[in-house]
Structure formats: C-alpha cells, structure tokens
Task: structure prediction
Amino acid sequence: MTGPVDLFGAEYSVYVRICRIVLAEKGVEYTLHPIDVFASDGPPQDYLDLNPFGRIPSLRHGNLVLYETDAITAYIDEAFDGPDLMPAGIQARARARQIMRLADTEIYRHLVWGVCVPSRENAAMPGLERAGLILGELQRLAGENWMAGDQVSLADAHVYPMLAYFSLVPEGAAKLAQFDRLAQWMEQMRELNSVIFSRFSEEKPSAGSL
Result:
C-alpha cells in the first residue's frame, strides 16, 4: 500500500509519542496533525469520523485508517521497510508483548495517572505505592540491553514515554534510581534520535539553556 502517512494526536500524549518513536525507528516520513482531546469542545468532527471514540492517536495510510496504539505500531513495523521492531524468536516476541501489556495495564494506569497527573495538581500520588512492584517486575522481565532482544523493539517504544513522564516527577525519578538496569536503559533510550525528536515539552531544554 502506498500513500502519505498521517498521524493524528497531541505531542503531550504518551501513546502518540509511542507511534512517533516507532515511525522514526522505521524511517517513515509522516505528518502529525494536532488533535487536543482535552479541548473544551472536544475533538473536531472530522477527527471523530476517523475514530468515533475520540481517543488519540489515529493513523491514516492511504485508504487505511487505524486507531489503538498496539494496532498502529504493529502495522508500521510490518508495512514499512527498516529494522524489524519485534524480536525474531517466539519467546522473545511473547516477552515483548507481555511488556507492552504491562505498560498499558500497570505503568500507564499507576505511574502516569497515579503519579504524574496528580503531581501537577499537588495532590496525593497513590501510584507511588505500586511503583516498586511495577518497576521491579519490569526490570526482571527486561533484557540485558533492551526490553526484548538485542535491539530496540516495540516494547521499548511502548514503555519509554510512560517512564519519561514518571521520571519528571521528583518522587518518580527517585524510585527509578533504585533500579539500576532500568535507569541505565532510560539513559540509553534518551540517546536515540527517535526519542530526542519526539520529546515532551517538559523534557526540552529551556530557552537560553546550554
């Protein structure tokens, strides 16, 4: 299938960033169309025509429209040239999928919505109580250098944006520092061009900084 690649969503979104990292790792050129789901009047109707649930991201490639991040990233990996972003071995692929689900069910729920979001409102951060369990299990499951296998995979792309937000909260950064291999993996991920290009605004150097 040919045609332009259009990604719809907001730069602040964890799940949009996952797709942007995957697109960059595959070397796919695309256009990002800003969609703010938190706007007072909600997403525009032309976006709801693509995704009636109003969530982000969505991807359009030619005549194909996809929503749900795991479907989008799997499609990008299979439809375009570039390095394979899933390990070759059956067990390694299963581990990658397990880590991706862990990101959705535990990391996003407890470390993003349970820590990062309330921290912005100076509210209690209930997710911190579960952070040690989540990070410990993630470190146990992770490979020696990358989340799954010997190179960057979809699992790395799914986990990093969530922990990037978590690490911006002082309490989150302190928790992460307790898990040396995860902390090292975070530093390794921060050096990837795909990660640098898609940084959240809070990660970007402030004006006038060195």
Summary: The domain at 5-79 is CATH 3.40.30.10 (Glutaredoxin). The chain has a mean pLDDT of 94. The CA atoms of residues 30 and 204 lie 22 Å apart.
